[in-house]
Specification:
This protein has 217 residues and is α+β, with helices and mostly antiparallel strands. It has 7 helices and 11 strands. Strand 7 and strand 8 form a beta hairpin. Helix 2 crosses helix 4. The N terminus is likely disordered.
Length: 217
């Protein structure tokens, strides 16, 4: 079972895949299961990425259609010192509907920073799955004791930008003509970031509000 160190790791507390497993209903009523990637998922995940449109794969940090790259993620876990990334799978029936990843930056001066990226299969877009995956990754980042999250995305991918802004991400910079597609087109790369202290406060507020509404309804 995949496990990663949470912010109370000094006391030996850990979270594993069973702790994280949850179900979410999308805007159109589709019910998806969210879980951490485990040993044995590599082939399905590789197939998922291989079937994405080329432009969707362009902005990924790693070529996840390559077995040697997938092997790193398949080992799973998010522990300080090694295995510094994890992957969340969103599944609908027997299909992978979307994937989110959290990667901790290198040790020392950026050890408090994590990077988020996610991709949703074309058939499951505009249903709220991007929002569900983002919230799950941010929750995991808080559990891992991270303080800041950064994201990179195409500047013209307005749907993704809107999702991140809704969670409190702010624009940090724009790299013009930074990425070139297979057919030679150049695209701008948008850099965004989010202070997790603000996210925790907002999450606690929304949680308290939901509890209040449940009692008063």
């Amino acid at each position: 079972m995949v496990a990663f160190t949470c912010k109370n790791a000094a006391q030996g507390e850990r979270m594993d895949g069973e702790d994280f497993l949850k179900y979410e209903e999308l805007e159109d009523g589709t019910r998806v299961r969210l879980r951490l990637m485990e040993a044995g998922d590599a082939d399905r995940v590789q197939t998922f990425f291989a079937q994405l449109p080329p432009d969707d794969r362009l902005f990924l940090k790693y070529d996840l259609t390559r077995p040697e790259v997938m092997a790193v993620f398949e080992k799973g876990g998010y522990t300080v010192g090694y295995q510094r990334a994890l992957m969340v799978l969103a599944e609908h029936e027997d299909r992978i509907a979307g994937i989110g990843s959290l990667r901790r930056h290198d040790p020392d001066w950026t050890d408090h920073v994590g990077e988020i990226w996610l991709v949703v299969a074309p058939a499951y877009r505009r249903k709220g799955l991007g929002r569900v995956l983002t919230r799950s990754i941010l929750d995991l980042a808080v559990a891992a004791g991270l303080e800041k999250i950064v994201a990179e995305m195409p500047a013209d991918q307005l749907g993704a930008v809107e999702v991140f802004q809704r969670f409190g991400f702010v624009r940090e910079g724009l790299l013009t003509n930074y990425v070139k597609t297979a057919d030679g087109r150049k695209r701008d790369l948008l850099l965004m970031s989010h202070d997790l202290e603000h996210y925790q406060g907002r999450a606690q507020y929304l949680g308290a509000l939901e509890e209040y509404l449940a009692v008063t309804e």
